[in-house]
Design a protein that fits this description.
six-stranded antiparallel beta barrel, alpha+beta
């Protein structure tokens, strides 16, 4: 009979199954060939920013940037304000255009209301060789000019011809003519001595009498009150003193040589005047005077003599404010002696008066006053203390400017600019305030 089998009764073989063998092969493969393992998804909750939070973040960044930009601008403004800060003020002083047509007198010792002047003196020597015709023994006395002063009395003092004057080094000179010295005027600190100019000559011949400019006393007054109160002064050295052999030169050659030397001296002295004229003074080249003196000829070589000439340029000079004030007194009605100046003196012409006491042929040191004509148009400007105005403005508010200017009657008006624009006060440092002057309608 046939035997029936149940599935449960079927047993598998004890050997490895094909699946298990395949798994072993798979495990033997290199690790890099293993299939990637799939990780489980992150189940933790994620934060998604809302629209309002994004706006808040962007706005905060924008505000920070704006703050930084504003801070930088403010810082730069402060730095530039410090570096470029300052103030400038343009001042328009009072001025007056006047026409001058007059004859005036100026004095070396002016009284109140008179015009004074000083004498600018320049000296030079020039020489040239000429043929000498021989020698001769010569004795010559030095000569010069002095101004005699009378501080002794309001009455005049009379000095006779040949009155002696003694230099500080003991050399004696005599006046060539009698002189009457006027008495002084005023008293105390306002005393003005009387003066007169006189020519003098040395008591003896010789070069030692070519003394420098200085003071001279009168030996005849020694021991009397007049000794210290009546005296002489020279503004130039004395010249001409000589004793010894002098070379003889043909008269025509000598004169021709002197003329050439005089031209050279004039050119040299005029050139020096341009560089040596003092600041703050008015002068006119038409007022120049020249004078010459011959120095002893000296021996040269091969029968030649050296001719020497001494030249003196003199010119009256006027202090600008005094000169302008004197013109204002004579041209501006109601002028009250306020400080004033002349902007361009060259617009006026100066000529010595033909009826005056001085001519260009004489040394100005021989005169104690000059008379001259002035013609032309001039611009007179009222003046003020620039440094004081700047000091008054330093540290003050711009609104104080009108009140400050009220203390300066010479100023017509002024405009001020302060930097940087947001500042309302002038700098504390005077050096940071620039002052400019604007004259006339162009301002």
């Amino acid at each position: 009979m046939s035997q029936k089998w149940n599935l449960q009764d079927i047993r598998t073989s004890d050997g490895p199954s094909p699946r298990k063998s395949m798994q072993g092969v798979q495990q033997a493969r290199p690790q890099e060939e293993q299939a990637p393992r799939r990780t489980a998804p992150d189940s933790s909750p994620k934060y998604t920013p809302t629209r309002s939070s994004r706006k808040s973040s962007i706005g905060g960044k924008r505000n920070t940037i704006i703050f930084i930009v504003v801070a930088v601008i403010v810082a730069l403004g402060l730095i530039l304000g410090y570096l470029l800060g300052g103030a400038s003020i343009i001042v328009h002083p009072k001025y007056k255009s006047v026409n001058v047509q007059g004859t005036f007198t100026a004095k070396t010792e002016p009284a109140a209301g008179e015009l004074g002047y000083e004498v600018l003196t320049l000296e030079a020597d020039a020489e040239r060789q000429v043929t000498a015709t021989g020698k001769e023994e010569v004795t010559e006395q030095a000569q010069g000019t002095i101004t005699i002063y009378n501080e002794y009395s309001t009455n005049s003092v009379r000095l006779v011809k040949n009155t002696r004057f003694e230099s500080s080094d003991g050399h004696i000179f005599r006046i060539t003519e009698s002189a009457v010295v006027p008495g002084y005027t005023g008293d105390g600190s306002n005393k003005t001595p009387g003066t007169i100019v006189a020519k003098v000559f040395a008591d003896e011949a010789g070069p030692e009498y070519n003394v420098a400019a200085g003071k001279f006393t009168i030996p005849g007054f020694k021991g009397d009150p007049e000794f210290d109160a009546v005296y002489g002064k020279s503004s130039d050295a004395f010249t001409g003193g000589f004793a010894g052999q002098k070379y003889i030169v043909d008269d025509a050659d000598l004169q021709k040589t002197k003329d050439v030397l005089h031209e050279e001296l004039q050119a040299a002295l005029r050139s020096r005047l341009e560089s040596e004229r003092p600041a703050g003074f008015v002068l006119y080249e038409s007022a120049i005077t020249f004078s010459y003196s011959s120095l002893p000829a000296t021996e040269s070589t091969d029968g030649m003599a050296t001719i020497k000439e001494h030249g003196v340029l003199q010119i009256p000079i006027f202090e600008n404010s005094e000169f302008a004030g004197y013109l204002a007194q004579n041209t501006i009605a109601g002028y009250e002696n306020s400080p004033i100046s002349i902007t361009d003196p060259s617009t006026l012409t100066f000529t010595y008066s033909t009826t005056g006491s001085s001519t260009t042929a004489m040394k100005l040191s021989d005169q104690n006053e000059i008379t001259f004509d002035i013609r032309g148009d001039a611009e007179l400007v009222w003046t003020f203390d620039h440094d004081k105005l700047v000091s008054d403005l330093a540290g003050k508010s711009k609104t104080a400017l009108p009140a400050i200017l009220s203390g300066y009657p010479a100023i017509e008006r002024a405009e001020a600019t302060i930097r940087p624009f947001w500042k309302s006060s002038f700098p504390d440092k005077k050096d940071d305030i620039k002052l400019d002057i604007m004259i006339g309608d162009n301002g």
